[in-house]
């Protein structure tokens, strides 16, 4: 069954994570993705390890594998006139170009949007940078960690400053890169729809900082509405109580009470009916205002049972909760297994590579994983002989 983007060709000039994450998503949806890589070097993330799958010349970094399935790797020297000519010819036959060079970095090669638009008026060209194509920071390099700090995420992530271990903390994965990659995909799909109506392509200007500020969501609006900057408060929630981690008899668990009914059911199950009836705690605004009195009481009770005992008890009364799993337990989870989230696919060397599925579930055009992350340049001859001969 053909994917929804079957027939769409993507020329991927990006590397590291934000761009490759976007183009991998497009590949998952059925697009043909041609990844241009530097001969003998390739995408920087090919060396970002350990861990590596395989050894020696056949090794693939796990980091690279996470963002490059479904693509064809073509090794071309962009700095050479011959390489520039090849990329221009490929762009003329592509629907989408994705790049994450510094602002103006591709102009000297004749591979900027205006140059390629002259060859292909319908081309959709997505540029991903740290700070965008305009503004006083446009020429600065931008990396996920520094944007997490500059863009405010680290001001609301981590334990409170007055607690043990307090201070700024980055997210455990490169969320700015990943969100920017997803927003880039959304922007590209919108541009494809626009082109379908008008025949015209366009330039998409994506910035890590823009994305970071946008995805602060309720935290951004809390500041804009109140005028008070939110602070780090560990695993607790600024506007919902109890919605945090608690220590149990054998570890930790998450209790995520989202409404007053759930709170009452939790209290009844935990043997605390008087707490739910207390006017200070019967409503969420009251619990937020009085969290200092409530949370220690709950913590004392929760510490008396194991995580599994709490999860079993609270699931029966429909109170959201769960363990804090390590990744071995995540991939061994029955729900994760039932949804087929772990992949296994063959690469060009006949090896079975692991992967993680795209979470999009179509009813009419289910995603198929037809190609494992490629070795450097493995598709160069096949792609160039097929496309440049046309």
CATH architecture of the largest domain: 3-Layer(aba) Sandwich
Mind telling me the C-alpha Rg?
A: 25 Å
Task: Name the poorly predicted regions.
Answer: none
Q: What is the quaternary state of this protein?
A: single chain
The rounded distance between the terminal residues' Cα atoms is 26 Å
Tell me the count of domains: 2
Class from helix and strand fractions: alpha/beta
Number of strands: 13
How would you write the strand order of the largest sheet?
Answer: 5-2-1-6-7-8
> What general outline do the C-alpha atoms trace?
elongated
State the CATH superfamily name of the largest domain: Crotonobetainyl-coa:carnitine coa-transferase, domain 1
Strand content: 15-25%
Q: What does the main sheet amount to? A: 6 strands, parallel
CATH first level of the largest domain: which class?
Alpha Beta
What value does the average pLDDT take? 96
Number of helices: 16
């Amino acid at each position: 069954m053909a994917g929804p983007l079957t027939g769409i060709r993507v020329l991927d000039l990006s590397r590291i994570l934000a761009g490759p994450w976007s183009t991998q998503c497009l590949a998952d949806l059925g697009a043909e993705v041609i990844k241009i890589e530097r001969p003998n070097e390739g995408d920087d993330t090919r060396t970002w390890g350990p861990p590596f799958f395989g050894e020696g010349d056949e090794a693939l970094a796990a980091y690279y594998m996470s963002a490059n399935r479904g693509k064809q790797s073509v090794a071309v020297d962009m700095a050479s006139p011959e390489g520039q000519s090849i990329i221009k010819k490929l762009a003329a036959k592509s629907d989408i170009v994705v790049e994450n060079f510094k602002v103006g970095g591709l102009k000297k090669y004749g591979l900027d949007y205006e140059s390629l638009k002259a060859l292909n008026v319908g081309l959709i060209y997505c540029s991903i940078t740290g700070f965008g194509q305009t503004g006083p920071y446009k020429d600065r390099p931008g990396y996920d960690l520094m944007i997490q700090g500059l863009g405010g995420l680290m001001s609301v992530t981590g334990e409170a400053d007055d607690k043990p271990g307090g201070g700024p903390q980055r997210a455990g994965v490169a969320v700015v890169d990943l969100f920017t990659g997803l927003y880039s995909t959304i922007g590209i799909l919108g541009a494809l729809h626009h082109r379908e109506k008008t025949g015209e392509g366009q330039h998409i200007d994506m910035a890590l900082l823009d994305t970071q500020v946008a995805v602060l969501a309720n935290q951004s609006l809390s500041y804009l509405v109140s005028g008070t900057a939110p602070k780090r408060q560990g695993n607790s929630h600024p506007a919902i109580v109890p919605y945090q981690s608690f220590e149990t008899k054998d570890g930790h668990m998450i209790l995520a009470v989202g409404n007053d009914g759930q709170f009452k059911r939790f209290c009844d199950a935990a043997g605390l009916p008087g707490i739910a009836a207390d006017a200070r705690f019967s409503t969420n605004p009251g619990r937020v205002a009085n969290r200092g009195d409530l949370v220690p009481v709950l913590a004392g009770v929760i510490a008396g049972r194991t995580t599994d005992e709490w999860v079993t008890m609270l699931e029966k009364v429909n109170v959201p909760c769960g363990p804090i799993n390590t990744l071995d337990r995540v991939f061994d989870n029955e729900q994760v297994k039932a949804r087929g989230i772990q992949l296994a696919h063959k690469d060009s060397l006949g090896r079975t590579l692991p992967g993680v599925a795209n979470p999009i579930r179509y009813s009419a055009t289910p995603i198929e994983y037809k190609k494992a992350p490629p070795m450097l340049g493995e598709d160069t001859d096949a792609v160039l002989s097929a496309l440049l001969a046309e």
